Amino acid sequence: MALLEVKDLQVYYGVIQALKGISFEVNEGEIVTLIGANGAGKTTTMQSIIGLIPSNHGTVIFDGQDITKVPCHKLVHAGLTQVPEGRRIFQELTVYENLLMGGFSQKDQSILKQDIEKIYERFPRLAERKNQIAGTLSGGEQQMLAIGRAMMSRPKLLLLDEPSMGLSPLLVDQVFEIIKQLRDDGTTILLVEQNAGKSLAISDRAYVLELGEIVLSGTGAELAASEEVKKAYLGG
Amino acid sequence: MEIIETLISGLSSGGTYAMIALGYTMVYGIAKMLNFAHGDIIMVGGYAIYTTMIATKNPILGLGVAIIFCMLLGISVEKIAYKPLRGASPLAVLITAIGVSYLLQSTAQMIFGTAPKMVIVAEMGNMEIGALKIPYYIIVTLVCSAIVMVALTLFVKKTKTGRAMVAVSEDRGAAQLMGINVNRIIMITFAIGSALAALAGFFMLMKAPSLTNTLGAMPGIKAFTAAVIGGIGSIPGAMIGGLLLGIVEAVTSKSAAIAPYTDAIEFLILIIILLVRPTGILGKVRREKV
Ligand SMILES: Nc1ncnc2c1ncn2[C@@H]1O[C@H](COP(=O)(O)OP(=O)(O)OP(=O)(O)O)[C@@H](O)[C@H]1O
Ligand SMILES: [Mg+2]
Fold first, then answer.
1. Phi and psi of A4, rounded to 5°?
2. What pLDDT score does A157 carry?
């Protein structure tokens, strides 16, 4: 059984239909990527899975439970979380406080402390800057913080919306490396990316989204080799 | 000596303004709305004190009842009138708040009539230190509001709920992703704001014992001004704005020639500060990151 199952999801913004009934699934232990051009509906998909945008039709099943109408703040407890597009860390709080917010659902203080230490181990840069106001971090550090903050809730499935956006090539490689590590450590990943080459390379499976519809799907390698994908997303 | 007396009295009435301004600023920061009915919560608190004192003659019990009643009222107003309008245009919410304000004032008038009620919360004399002579109510107000401001600051900085309030005010969606129940945080915000309004009502009755259904109207507007001067949405800003207005008021009221223009001077200060710093003293210019 799939960990996440999206069935015929439709979302309207007013009269404009942003998602025209998309269906896909993510199995436990996979990295699954949605690629697509600007405005294809990737962020809309991510936000409506997690309940930040209401869907108009369709169902979302997570871990065997229908979460279509479950409010966003309850999904963290179920093991689903998201690094949103643009990171959206809490700029006025310190690095440490951001991580605390990430562990908001964790009632056990000692586990909370341990988890923060684990994040510091994974991202030593954050440990060095734990008392810095997060708004003053560099873009790369903010992305690490956004990922670290999301990991604080110990998600089964992590949704990542364009984690490489705005980062230098070196940092982009680092982010993809982190995503692979997270998966190897047991977190299932649903990734949205514009960087089709790098994301397909680490993906078990992928879907291509165009104007609110899934037009192609396959393993990462299959899509990376497909003529259509090459032409549209890999610049050749 | 007179300068010190004036300053202390200014800080004291500033403390009252700060109590009210905090309600405006927290609700604005967290629920993103201007609650123009906030001033009327003060008035409701006043009548709660009055009613309790008729029954028991105990002003402290009166304050306790007022705080609890106002908290419940604030929460109910939010649930019934504002919550259904989440996501509606700010203008619709504003008009609703003005409607709630009239509703509260009219209801109070229906129950208690138009004649002012005398509410003597306590007969207090003056405190004399050397040549200083300061009425006790001023000291009580000053000390209590200082304690409340420190407590609130610690609450916001050090507690989980307080940090959740900061998170919600900065980015409601991201806060939800953390597992924060935004509705619950908004409810808590209204409860705190309303409790502070009840406290402000108590301070006002200590100063001047006359109670009518418009008790909260002018202080409400003044405190809103204070919140904007300090930077609406900012908790320390509301404190600074409130204290500033209190001091200005105390100073201008010293001169018979200037005293009639006190309100005008305060609003002039608002205009000047907004011209120099449109976000208010501590208001943040939001950096839009793409
Ligand atoms: N709040 C909104 N109101 C109206 N239309 C919206 C809204 N948000 C998104 N849209 C529209 O829905 C479509 C899909 O947007 P979405 O943000 O999901 O795209 P995306 O694939 O994430 O794009 P990008 O790669 O640029 O982030 C776009 O046409 C967009 O203009
Ligand atoms: Mg997007």
1. -125, 130
2. 98
Whether residue B177 and residue A50 make contact (CB cut-off 8 A), yes or no, is yes
Residue A106 belongs to a domain: no
> Residue B210 contacts by C-beta under 8 Å, 6 or more apart in sequence?
B116, B117, B118, B119
Residues of B in contact with A148 (CB under 8 A): none
Could you tell me if B286 and B231 are in contact, meaning their C-beta atoms sit under 8 angstroms apart? no
| ipTM of this complex prediction, to 2 decimal places | 0.94
State the distance between the two ends of chain A, measured CA to CA, in whole angstroms. Answer: 37
- Minimum CA–CA partner of A88 in chain B: B174
Task: Give CA torsion, residues B66, B196, B28, B156, to 10 deg.
Answer: -130
| CB of residue A38 inside a 6 A radius of ligand 1 | yes
A137 found inside a domain: no
Number of domains present in the structure of chain A:
1
Strand pairing report for A80-83 and A157-161:
parallel
Long-range contacts of residues A174-181, Cβ cutoff 8 Å, at least 24 apart? A174/A140, A175/A143, A175/A147, A176/A201, A176/A202, A178/A122, A178/A144, A178/A147, A179/A31, A180/A31, A181/A122
State how far the Cα of A41 lies from the Cα of A56, in Å rounded to an integer: 14
Alpha-carbon distances, residue A122 vs A99, A103, A127, B19 (angstroms): 13, 16, 9, 44
The pLDDT, as a whole number, for residue B289 is: 39
Residue A234 pLDDT more than 80? Answer: no
pLDDT for res B285: 66
* CA gap A160, A149 in Å, rounded: 12
Domain of residue A46: give its range. 2-88+156-233
Asked if the structure places residue A107 within a domain, the reply is no
Average pLDDT over residues B179-185: 97
**Sequence ranges of the domains in chain B:** 16-212
Smallest Cβ–Cβ distance between A104 and the set B179, B284, B290 belongs to B179
**How far lies A221's CA from each of A194, A206, A218, in Å?**
17, 9, 8
The enclosing domain of A60 has a CATH number of 3.40.50.300
> Cβ neighbours of residue B185 under 8 Å, at least 6 residues apart?
B30, B161, B164, B165, B168, B175
Does B287 have pLDDT greater than 60? no
CA gap B26, B175 in Å, rounded: 16
pLDDT at residue B99 is higher than 90: yes
A51-80 per-position pLDDT tens digit: 999 999 999 999 999 999 999 999 999 999
The CA distance from B260 to B253, in Å, is 8
Quote the pLDDT of residue B288. 44
In a domain, A150, yes or no: no
- Joined together, the tokens standing for residue B144 give 């209590």
Mean pLDDT of B85-104: 94
Substitution target in B172, B177, B181, B234 with the highest count of A β-carbons within 10 Å is B177
3-state secondary structure of A57: strand
| C-alpha of A172 from chain center | 15
Please answer whether residues B177 and A50 qualify as being in contact, where contact means their C-beta atoms are separated by less than 8 angstroms.
Answer: yes
